[in-house]
Automatic annotation (TrEMBL):
GO terms for cellular component: cytoplasm. InterPro entries: Heat_shock_Hsp33, Heat_shock_Hsp33_C, Heat_shock_Hsp33_N. One of its GO terms (biological process) is protein refolding. The lineage of its organism: Bacteria, Bacillati, Bacillota, Clostridia, Eubacteriales. One of its GO terms (molecular function) is unfolded protein binding. It comes from Candidatus Coproplasma stercoripullorum. Gene3D superfamilies: Hsp33 domain, HSP33 redox switch-like. This is Hsp33 family molecular chaperone HslO.
Length: 274
């Protein structure tokens, strides 16, 4: 199941999101054929991306999270839109280690220009890095607990909890958020046994009584297509494309997000320029 549960708690001083992303993470693992460690890292990053996408307001809103590890520690990227269409990839050869580098977030929420924030990675834990990002780049006190649990090729559970303190929050709200975060030491196992809704009720049942809980459903869906790739090729010009054909025999474009190869021969290029 893939679901985001969003609401306000602590007298509307805290924004709460509980995510269940098991099917989303399984789909990503199947597309990329990842090892459990790499799939876990990508799955946790996809869960964070789904949370950020769920916060977008504009009809054309989009967000991307990119991690570049240092000294060959690997890289990964996820992106999503306001419709919660998610996609991502990871350098599987790094064994899922994403540390010692930087995290960059780009948000386009329909304003004059996209917001770009960045921070140094503080560990190989995705939750800690996202907390650090919100603290450094957006100055929003945030507690993040995301996880993904794998048994070989199978994702047993994935999801998480994100709590953000809103402007004007009280000391009681701070204590509540820190206390709840301390209780969630293995969120993936909690998702496995209770599901997202069960986690919501277990930890926040008293807080959500009478509150509206907004439910959305993220899914893994790449936005690439042969038509879109064709449009990009057209911008290269006919001469450049014909030179590539002479050297390589065909033009191949690979989408890292959905692991798809688009191939174009001489006849395809000829049709593009008709």
């Amino acid at each position: 199941m893939n679901r985001l549960y969003k609401t306000l708690i602590c007298n509307k001083q805290v924004s709460l999101t509980v995510a269940e992303t098991t099917d989303l993470v399984q789909r990503a693992r199947d597309i990329h054929g990842l090892s459990p460690a790499a799939a876990k890292a990508l799955g946790e990053l996809l869960t964070c991306g789904a949370y950020m996408s769920g916060c977008l307001k504009s009809e054309k809103g989009a967000v991307s999270i990119t991690i570049k590890g240092a000294n060959g520690a690997g890289s990964a990227s996820v992106s999503g839109d306001v419709n919660l269409h998610m996609r991502g990839y990871i350098d599987g050869s790094a064994g899922g280690k994403l540390e010692g580098g930087f995290m960059t977030v780009i948000k386009d929420d329909g304003f004059f220009r996209p917001f770009t924030g960045a921070c140094e990675l503080v560990s190989d834990d995705v939750s800690q890095n996202l907390e650090h990002y919100f603290d450094i780049s957006e100055q929003i006190p945030t507690k993040v607990r995301v996880g993904a649990l794998f048994d070989g090729k199978n994702c047993l559970a994935a999801g998480g909890v994100v709590m953000q303190l809103l402007p004007g929050h009280s000391g009681e709200a701070v204590a509540f958020v820190e206390g709840k975060a301390a209780e969630m030491y293995d969120i993936a196992s909690e998702i496995k046994s209770l599901g997202g809704e069960g986690v919501l009720n277990k930890y926040f049942g008293n807080e959500i009584k009478g509150a509206h809980v907004y439910i959305t459903e993220p899914e893994y869906k790449c936005n690439c297509s042969r038509e879109k790739i064709s449009s990009i090729l057209l911008t290269m010009g006919r001469v450049e494309l014909e030179n590539i054909l002479k050297e390589q025999g065909e033009i191949s474009v690979h989408c890292h997000y959905c692991n798809t190869d688009y191939k174009f021969g001489a006849e395809d290029i000829e049709k593009l320029f008709k």
